[in-house]
Amino acid sequence: MRKLETDQLEALSAQELHDRAVRYAVHHGDFAFLWELLKVIPAAEASTGNEDETANDLSRVSALLSDAMASGEGELGDALRPFYIEYLSQHPDA
What we know:
The chain is mainly α. 81% of the residues lie in helices and 0% in strands.
């Protein structure tokens, strides 16, 4: 990134940076960025001195991971079959 562009970004508020980055990531399917954002939020919360929110953030991420790992079981697994079939048909090496 050129210095002028960096300076322009530095001039934006945190909310503007968030909105711009998340909107771009969602629009372009950049799940790596969104995942990384989820991973750094607890540390950012801790740096603000808000330990309770850090624990809440970690709990929510943990719950999402647990849901994802168990999403092949029972009725949920059956309901997600078309989703898995579509994904695997697009990635035959999986």
